[in-house]
Amino acid sequence: MIRSPRVGLTLTLGSAQTLAWASSYYLPAILAVPMARDLGVPPSWVFAAFSVALLLTAMLGPSVGRWIDIRGGRGVLMASNGVMALGLIIMALSQGVFTLMLAWLITGIGMAMGLYDAAFATLGRLLGRSARASITGVTLLAGFASTIGWPVTALLENEFGWRTACGVWAMLHIVIGLPLNALLPKAGDSPAVQKDENPAPPPDRPRLAMVLLAFVFAAGWFVSTAMAAHLPRLLQETGVSLSVAVAAAALVGPAQVAARLGEFALLRHLHPLVAARVATTLHPLGAALLATVGMPAAGFALLHGAGNGMMTIASGTLPLALFGSAGFGRRQGLIIAPARAMQAFAPLLFGLLIEQHGAGALWLTAGLMLAASLALLCIRVPRLQG
């Protein structure tokens, strides 16, 4: 598996995650309108079906994590490719609301089995606390999912239609995603990729720490999803033109990747709490500068993107560092479940807020991230034993 087993593991899983995200989470942004037009329903119905899929993903997360804790993640990730492919095929064959909803429900099951939560749990099962670098590497690669997925989906839809686009993504799960996940080592099978057996000392009040982390990630994912759905429109409300708003919003992706590289290069020797605390302050800082000194829209997009990129890493590394690798998958599922639920409602709620308050909607997102920052300050870095 390449010269370094851990590098090979990271590249393999990161590539599979790029495909998984591009063909599920990032699909509605391109296909919702043509789907709705062809099926004779409002686009909001497609997004509603997607929201239900995200809620199902949240419900199934702890069970998937528990399974990975016991059996390892290779089989779960391989199965996710088959489930996502089935959902996409049913989507391509949909003739009405019922089959469309069924397709998204099946895809939601596949997302629970095959996105970051399952990938992080798999790395925790294989590598223990030393999984941090691999988690960062996986998010670096999968950070390009929208950069790759949106143009590919748009090209397929423009040339062949949305049904063919869904069919092609289904085929890619079978011919690329499944073989990639099949390359992953079984839990405990690879002597070169061993789990770190030294458990992390738990914080003084682990249940409180779990509740605080659940709030932090719920706030972070609400803000992330709200910005992903409405950032160009939000920036227009500050007075910039559509072209400037779109150009500024396009900087979020590169900022995410740059921040993840920075986290790996500068902060990897510090406790993940440090990076998480920094991450939660960047969106409020950008909002404050945008409102008070008229910082360019691009500056806000860069700060938001950087914070969001670091938060994605923290969602995997922080629970692992605080609680250790034992039971990591189930605990990860429990902590992230509220974030998945908030993610499902964020586009609708934030859209209504923009309609009523314009750029003032930023007060909500900035406030949520400041509250998340305060919550992280209430969690103490556990002192190492020994």
Automatic annotation (TrEMBL):
It is a multi-pass membrane protein. Residues 9-385 form the Major facilitator superfamily (MFS) profile domain. It comes from Vreelandella maris. It is found in: Cell membrane. Keywords: Cell membrane, Membrane, Transmembrane, Transmembrane helix. This is MFS transporter. One of its GO terms (molecular function) is transmembrane transporter activity. The chain crosses the membrane at residues 46-64, 76-95, 101-123, 135-156, 168-187, 208-228, 240-261, 282-303, 309-328, 335-354, 360-379. Pfam families: MFS_1. InterPro entries: MFS (IPR011701), MFS_dom (IPR020846), MFS_Efflux_Transporters (IPR050189), MFS_trans_sf (IPR036259). The keyword Transmembrane helix applies. The lineage of its organism: Bacteria, Pseudomonadati, Pseudomonadota, Gammaproteobacteria, Oceanospirillales. GO terms for cellular component: plasma membrane.
